[in-house]
Amino acid sequence: MRDLVLFLIVVPGGLMALRHPFVGAMMWTWISIMNPHRMAYGFMFDAPVAMFIAVCTLVGLLASKEKRNPFIGAPVTWLAILIGWMCITTVFAFDTASSLGMLEKVLKIDLMVLVILMLIRTKREMMVFAWVLTLSVAFFGIKGGIFTLSTGGAFHVRGPSGSYLEENNSLAVALIMTVPMLRFLQTTLEKAWQKHAMTAAMVLC
């Protein structure tokens, strides 16, 4: 059932990204951070979901006029310098063969970071990105917090299998960084119940 639901979300989302690449960028962020396919049990578990969305987004980006130069501001320039430095140091690494595999993963992520920077053009789009990014991580904090309370802390809370958040310490670091983002998003809400829900989410994380 999970596989079918995810399939019915990913495929239309990828097709939508061909016309609206910003949608694809948000889909890629959600899938790459939360790894929902790793919580399925069937054909979607090992499916190249992130790659499918990334390809659709890149195709949509090439055909779209809704983009801007990503190299605006010092942070992006420093990111480009860091990427170049990582490439140089990888060549001279003690174990170049193993290092190339990790470099490939990092470069794919950095490429999509630049794509996202090209597609975020308004405050509204920035806020959508902040919500998607934050909730993709906070999901595990909320779910894990409820699980920890219900079991008295008898078990570790881990992220999705095969992801960067799988190990409990990695997930903990991600959740610590998510709490300030939850607080920021809370300040944008107006209704009391929404603010209380965000407070509960921060406590559980």
UniProtKB/TrEMBL annotation:
The lineage of its organism: Bacteria, Pseudomonadati, Pseudomonadota, Betaproteobacteria, Rhodocyclales. Keywords: Ligase, Membrane, Transmembrane, Transmembrane helix. Pfam families: DUF5935 (PF19358). GO terms for molecular function: ligase activity. The chain crosses the membrane at residues 43-64, 76-94, 100-120, 127-149, 169-185. InterPro entries: CHP03097O-antigen_lig-rel, DUF5935. Residues 1-186 form the DUF5935 domain. This is Putative O-glycosylation ligase, exosortase A system-associated. It comes from Thauera phenolivorans. The keyword Transmembrane applies.
